[in-house]
Amino acid sequence: MAGFDTSGISQQAHPTVADLSECLFFSPGDGRIWLQDQRMVLLHSESLGSLRRELIDSIGLDKARGLLTRAGYVSGARDAQLVRRQWPDADPPAAAMAGTRLHALEGVVQVELVHAAYDAVTGVYEGEFLWHNSSEDDEHIAAYGVGGSPACWMQVGYATGYVSTLFGRLIVFRELNCRSSGDAHCRVIGKSAEHWDDVQQDLRYLNAQAFVGASAVEAGPVPVADLEAYAAANPGTEQSMVGTSSSFNAACHMLHRVAPTTATVLFTGESGVGKEMFASTLHRISPRKDKPFVAINCAAIPETLMESELFGVERGAYTGAGASRPGRFERAHGGTLFLDEIGTLSYVAQGKLLRALQEGEIERVGGTRAIGVDVRVIAATNVDLRQAVREGRFREDLFFRLNVFPIHLPPLRDRRDDIPLLMSHFLGHYNKRHQRQVAGFSQAAVKAMYNYAFPGNIRELQNLVERGVILVSDGEAIDVHHVFSSGESLAQDVLSLAWRDDGPATLSLLGSRKAPLPDEATGVPKSGALEQAELALLRQAIRRSGGNLAAAARDLGVSRATVAYRARKFGLTV
Prior knowledge:
five-stranded parallel sheet, 23 helices, 42% helix, alpha/beta
């Protein structure tokens, strides 16, 4: 297989356990442990075993497995991000092996490589590993004895999260042998998702919630999409969502809690995060699922037409009204009315909407009779309505009428753990839609996607992948220049303090304390002015944080390890 083949590489290939252990920092004075810029916690294995038992006994084995698998996935994704930052130029074999060593360093399991290969051209991954001394097995066997099925759920999630994050496409791991099921050791196989016969069962454990209906939320196949414009681009296609990040899962759980009720829901979040998708999903899993779902984009309707759009119009009400027609409230009777971008409504329209919500009845433009409507209202906005109320741009009484059950949807930059799933889904979707056979993403493209800020959120990721699918030739991998070709702002792959014209001074962290500084790599000394600016920035950040390096790192936008390294370099005392 082209690309890399790790079946014969040394267990001491860089980065080694010693290299990784240098990322581990203990700060007992303030009660914190750091693995690079990730805060860690030392826990007794027995306490995790106790938590595992309580989860299984209280919510059932299947739900507990899903929860622990997702927790493992997030841990693996975090470690993959650490390796990418710490060793940005590491070759794929070394980066892949670093995950096995990190897992051992964290006291979870000893990993023995049998074989692993990844073809960068086709995007195909295959790997086989043996797990020894699994802490998860120890606790499961202590609680339940040897049973009939594998039990290393967190570790399977970790492997899936780590490798998927590393290569930017969904790689699914399965545990075929396990000590918990009577085998001598644990054996796992990892493959690209499309090379398994069926990954629906595997994906079910990665989902916080499978939204398939009001009475069957836990049943059926798990979706692998989460995009706001999917329904519009694919009429008649089942809408679905997936996520592993904690913020996304929290929104999904809140959605499930409110679905059986008739409460008004207010979705908040940036443009492109999936508010319309969440709204339509809420309708689909509610008791009103067989009734109409009517959506209106308040920002797209002129103020002079808003009243007639919402409430309807009687014939002859104004010039051009040649026939009576119902408004959105009447069309949504018995179902759900989705008011998108509600923050753009004029003050007059807000007052008329408030009356309709309070009274449960509307009156058509030019009409003389009240029409009762039974409508569940869902609203969405990308502006801060509380601030709009303070500024007098939004009615306070309408805000409180809408803010019965608010759900905030996180931006994509806060749920980067979901990027491999989304990239993999969109790649498959657009391959099929445009009848292409694009292999996958280059490592440079994956790295760029993870470092990109995604101001357009999921909608922008969707567009970038579609652009790449169109530009690249069949059988080739999507590279950076295929995806970022219209002026997107990418992070610079340097490790230096620098002044930016468009914002505050920042540290650009796509390197590490292990990577050489530019002057060390080239032999060219830095200018004294730059060193002085660097030193000044560090001093200011450390002083503002009261000597707390973690807080200083957050202020500068880098990892704690980088700040600690630079402080030692300049001889700063903390």
